[in-house]
Write a structure and sequence with these properties.
By secondary structure, the protein is an alpha+beta fold. The chain has a domain at 56-178: Trefoil (Trefoil (Acidic Fibroblast Growth Factor, subunit A)), CATH 2.80.10.50. Helices cover 25% and strands 26% of the residues. It has helices spanning 2-44, 197-205, and strands spanning 54-63, 69-73, 76-81, 87-92, 97-102, 108-111, 117-120, 130-134, 140-144, 175-178. Strand 2 and strand 3 (76-81) form a beta hairpin. The longest helix has 43 residues, at 2-44. The radius of gyration is 31 Å and the shape is rod-shaped. It starts with a helix and ends in a 7-residue tail after the last helix.
Length: 212
């Protein structure tokens, strides 16, 4: 009886050891995979740009106060640009966060901690990100993504206003997206067209064409 019993216990111990080794092997593999996954998440979520696609559009930004367009002249920015002052606007697909770059100067509009508007060649910092706010009067306001309540704005002379001195209701922070003269994008024609009191009055006074 001792012989079969010994072989039985030896077999039982062998099975137990085998299960233990399998368990530790599975645990070790899971640990490595978890570590790799945490490393992947850490390195791919550090910069939101790595997880999002950008939509790049080119248009002009018409200032309500100056009647001209925003232009980026290197480090200096004003709202005295003539027709043709093109801006490259990078829009994140997951929201209305945008970066605005001059097409010729390749400098971005940024707002520093003092609320000053400056142009910088590198627009990856949060100071160069703005959030679009669509207003009821068909204008658009651009508020800093980093400094809440501070808007991009220009006075009547076209000079930038400090963000700390701006509010959404001020005309200085109201802008309109426009295509350059002589260039019309059929997909965006409605978006870039606004109706003012003057245009409504002109349409009422305009005679209807005679019909055959």
């Amino acid at each position: 009886m001792s012989g079969p019993s010994t072989r039985y216990y030896q077999h039982l111990c062998s099975e137990l050891i085998s299960h233990c080794l399998s368990f530790f092997l599975c645990f070790f593999t899971f640990y490595l995979l978890s570590a790799d996954f945490r490393f992947y998440i850490e390195n791919h979520t550090r910069n939101p740009d790595d997880l999002s696609r950008k939509q790049v559009r080119i248009y002009q930004l018409y200032s309500r106060t100056t009647g001209k367009h925003v232009q980026i002249l290197g480090k200096k920015i004003n709202a005295n640009g003539d027709d043709g002052a093109l801006l490259v606007v990078e829009t994140e697909t997951f929201g209305s966060h945008i970066r605005i770059k001059g097409k010729e100067s390749e400098h971005y509009i940024c707002m520093n901690e003092k609320g000053k508007i400056v142009g910088r060649p590198d627009g990856r910092k949060q100071e160069c990100v703005f959030v679009e706010e669509f207003l009821e009067n068909n204008y658009t306001a651009l508020v800093s993504a980093k400094y809440k309540g501070w808007y991009l704005g220009f006075n009547r002379k076209g000079r930038p206003k400090k963000g700390s001195r701006t509010t959404q209701r001020q005309q200085e922070v109201h802008f309109m997206k426009r295509q350059p003269k002589g260039r019309v994008d059929p997909l965006e024609e409605f978006r870039f067209t606004t109706v003012t009191k003057r245009t409504r009055r002109a349409r009422r006074l305009k005679p209807n064409p005679k019909r055959n």
